[in-house]
Amino acid sequence: MAAQQTITVDLGERSYPIVIGRGLLDGGFDLANFIDGTDCLVVSNETVAPLYRERILPNLSGTAVTTIELPDGESHKSLATMQKILDRLVESGANRDVTIVALGGGVVGDITGFAAACYMRGVAFIQIPTTLLAQVDSSVGGKTGVNHPQGKNLIGAFHQPRVVMIDTDTLNTLPDRELKAGLAEVIKYGAICDTGFFAWLEQNLQALLAREPAALQYAIQRSCELKAEVVAGDEREAGRRAILNFGHTFGHAIEHCQGYGEWLHGEAVAAGMVMAAELSGIDGDEQRRLSALLQKAGLPTAAPAIDACNWYEAMGLDKKVQKKQLRFVLLRTLGEAFVTSSFDADKLQSVIDASNR
Predict the structure, then answer these.
(1) Disulfide engineering: 183 pairs with which of 231, 255, 297, 319, CB 3.0-4.6 Å?
(2) β-strands 16-21, 5-9: how paired?
(3) pLDDT tens digits for 95-112?
(4) Model's pTM, two decimal places?
(5) Is position 237 annotated as part of the catalytic site?
(6) Is 222 labeled as catalytic in the residue annotation?
(7) End position of a domain, from candidates 173, 205, 233
(8) Is 69 a catalytic residue?
(9) Chain mean pLDDT for the chain
(10) Is residue 252 among the annotated active site residues?
């Protein structure tokens, strides 16, 4: 069994650990050290709660635990769902020393974090991500929020967790489709800032698909290390942190135009990365390496047919837009990403047109 790993997200007084290992649930890691008060609300969903809600109680010894179970799926990532969390907090008489625990995938984590940011102007929360995508991406960095009918994650706040506890054994119950969707975000890290990791993924993808524990733990660890480094240098995405959105401008447009939940987030990002690499104009061999790795992971490398006007409308709501100008995360070469509003408009149109064939 791989040893437990701890990675620190260095944000001064808001710094926190990401703890990665097997068997952390059932009391394998004491979360009580990160809880100031005695009250704790565990937020999960109808899929994850039956599997893990009771199992985390030993990790919360000495606290009075209240629970709430949300509906599952991206289509429920809304203000209405967040309101249920706030209502439960009020009903339970929770004070400012309450700690909210997010137990689930990225949707649960984002909604819970946003509720924690809003309740009494900000209370503590803890992330226990149970999907690969949440473990390597959404649980780290303090981005919280919900979708608006006109765009993804348009309503939210930066609110850092106290700790992120990643028990890799939770991936044993993850459906294959969701595991593959999480691999899109793992591959993204190699594509934007670590060619050595990208090459490791090319050599070890089958082990990841087979859920070999050592391979999964290393992939999660390296992804978290890379994200922690970027976030520490740019917590609120004023500059370099935006490179973490490689493929997301196209990917979010796919999710929006298809209807949230039709494609999983990682599936949309996979197709979006291929489109962004093409817009970047990087070496053809490097484009082929990226597409081949995504295909090997069982992910889509072409977007669904979407009307061109809908593409531009959806991309216009992207959070990277500044002064009404689209900005994209592009690649200078595989392993080196940058953010720019200077791109070839004709090339962008051809990339979009190609997706509609």
Answers:
(1) 297
(2) antiparallel
(3) 999 999 999 999 999 999
(4) 0.94
(5) yes
(6) no
(7) 173
(8) no
(9) 94
(10) yes
